[in-house]
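FORM 12-B: Structure-to-Sequence Request
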C-alpha cells in the first residue's frame, strides 16, 4: 500500500485493524458510536472480495473516517467521483428565498450537469480500461531468436548450423560453374543458348578447315 494506491479491500482491512481487528460487525458498532453509517455485511463482503455493488457515499465516508485514509483516496479506490466541497454549502444564504419556479430551474440545471459529469467519468474509466487492455496485448512476445546472420526461426546454415539462413550454392569441382550433376550456375538462360550456338559454329568451322 505504501508504493501504490490502496484498493477498497485494503482500506476495509485497515479500518478493521485500526478498530480492534474483530471483523465487520465490530467495525459497524464502532461506526455507529461515531455517528457514521456502515453496514457490517458490506464490510465483510468488501474484505472477502465478493462485493459487486457500488458503495454509497455514506459507506465511503465511514471507511475513510475509520481507516484514517483521506476521502479522496477512498472514493478513488471505489471508482466513485470525489467532490472536494459540498455544492449546497456554497449557496448564498438567500437561496432559500427562491420561489418554486426558480428552484425548479436550478434543480434542472444541476441535474443536467451532474448527469453529464457522470457520463464523462464513466467514459474516462472505459477509455483507461481499453488503453490498459491494449497495452497488455501489445506487449512484446518472444517466439524465438534469430541466428547470427539474422535468419528466421528454424532456418539454419547447412554448413555449420549457426542459423545464417542463406542457402549456399554448391560450387563445381573445376570452377566452371557447373556441379557434379551437370547443373550450370550463374549463367542466365539466354547466355546458355548463345554459348551452345558458339560451340556448334566452332565445330562446323573446324571440320571445314580440316
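FORM 12-B RESPONSE
SEQUENCE OUT:
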Amino acid at each position: 500500500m505504501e508504493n501504490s494506491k490502496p484498493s477498497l479491500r485494503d482500506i476495509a482491512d485497515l479500518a478493521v485493524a485500526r478498530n480492534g481487528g474483530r471483523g465487520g460487525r465490530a467495525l459497524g458498532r464502532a461506526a455507529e458510536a461515531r455517528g457514521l453509517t456502515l453496514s457490517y455485511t458490506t464490510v465483510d463482503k468488501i474484505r472477502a472480495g465478493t462485493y459487486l455493488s457500488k458503495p454509497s457515499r455514506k459507506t465511503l465516508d465511514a471507511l475513510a473516517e475509520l481507516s484514517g485514509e483521506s476521502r479522496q483516496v477512498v472514493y478513488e479506490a471505489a471508482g466513485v467521483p470525489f467532490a472536494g466541497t459540498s455544492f449546497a454549502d456554497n449557496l448564498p444564504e438567500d437561496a432559500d428565498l427562491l420561489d418554486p419556479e426558480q428552484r425548479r430551474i436550478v434543480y434542472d440545471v444541476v441535474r443536467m450537469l451532474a448527469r453529464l459529469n457522470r457520463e464523462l467519468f464513466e467514459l474516462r474509466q472505459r477509455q483507461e480500461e481499453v488503453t490498459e487492455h491494449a497495452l497488455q496485448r501489445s506487449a512484446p512476445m518472444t517466439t524465438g531468436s534469430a541466428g547470427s546472420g539474422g535468419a528466421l526461426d528454424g532456418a539454419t546454415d547447412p554448413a555449420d548450423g549457426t542459423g545464417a539462413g542463406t542457402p549456399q550454392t554448391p560450387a563445381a569441382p573445376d570452377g566452371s560453374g557447373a556441379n557434379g550433376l551437370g547443373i550450370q550456375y550463374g549463367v542466365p538462360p539466354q547466355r546458355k543458348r548463345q554459348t551452345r550456338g558458339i560451340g556448334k559454329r566452332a565445330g562446323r568451322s573446324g571440320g571445314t578447315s580440316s
